[in-house]
Amino acid sequence: MKLGILSGSTKIYSTRRLMEAARDQKHNVKVIRPAHCAMLITKNKPQLFYRGKRLETFDAILPRIGVKQTLFGLAVVRQFEMMGTYCVNSSYAIARSRDKLRSLQILCRRNVGLPPTAFIKKPEYIEQVIEKLGGSPVIIKLLQGTQGKGVILADTKTAAASVIEAFHGIDEQILIQQFVAQSEGSDIRAIVVGGKVIASMKRQAVKGEFRANLHRGGTAENIRLDKQYKNTAIRAAKILGLHVAGVDMLMTDEGPVVLEVNSSPGLEGIENTTDVDVAGAIIHYIHRQVTRPTKSRVIA
Fold first, then answer.
1. pTM
2. How confident is the model at residue 208 (pLDDT cuts 50, 70, 90)?
3. Which ranges of 90-188 does DSSP label H, i.e. alpha helix?
4. 235 to each of 110, 229, 269, how far by Cα in Å?
5. Are 6 and 47 contained in the same domain?
6. CATH no. for residue 49?
7. In a domain, 296, yes or no
8. What domain count does the chain have?
């Protein structure tokens, strides 16, 4: 199998591990940096160029697009799709997952557990919205953000109003979410590959921090999910059309609550915590898809 990995750098842990796993399984792999791609769009003949040369053909493309690369990266994925190349996560599915508001709307319609969330344009409705969310504290999130960046806990209505007005003042779009105190600074990350949870961990925030991200100093432990949490992670990924995904959930008395579904989940934390070869499982899944008849191939 000839596999192309769309990634900004070979030095990133996840990219490096995926390369190693592909080579261990005797596949030909190449990392393609989206920023060095050029697209030629002509009638019935879409073409891709990389560093000035026409790009070779691939059996499959694995998108690992950074948030800052989303717009151009998605265009590259679409170009591969137009050329008939199998893309593990489709451009459509990635776009839906990257839009936090849209992804929550889609999951809400399918009755997936979610934290009560508000989205407003006018600052004068802030207090009313916070009351409808159950009062302060509330979580304020930028629509674009990863690894806990752009996520703020506002303890009071006044603090929330000040933060929201500041973001609106610089034309940043935000979500306002109910603070789920039951989680006690912890969350669950489940990795879904091909409709199965292959690894999961519980992350715990450091004292004084509400974000459990490992990049924020949080700790993690291997955890075995029960059927309800497994099914929620699998459903969330499937609803958004993602065949490889990281699903973040909170534990509540009412069951799992989905925070976010990530189309390019980092592998370092989950592999080191669980000792599961997540990269190997992803490559194995891609190979199975590529070697299946086209009609039976899973395409979002």
1. 0.90
2. low
3. 91-98, 100-109, 126-132, 157-169
4. 9, 10, 23
5. yes
6. 3.40.50.20
7. no
8. 3
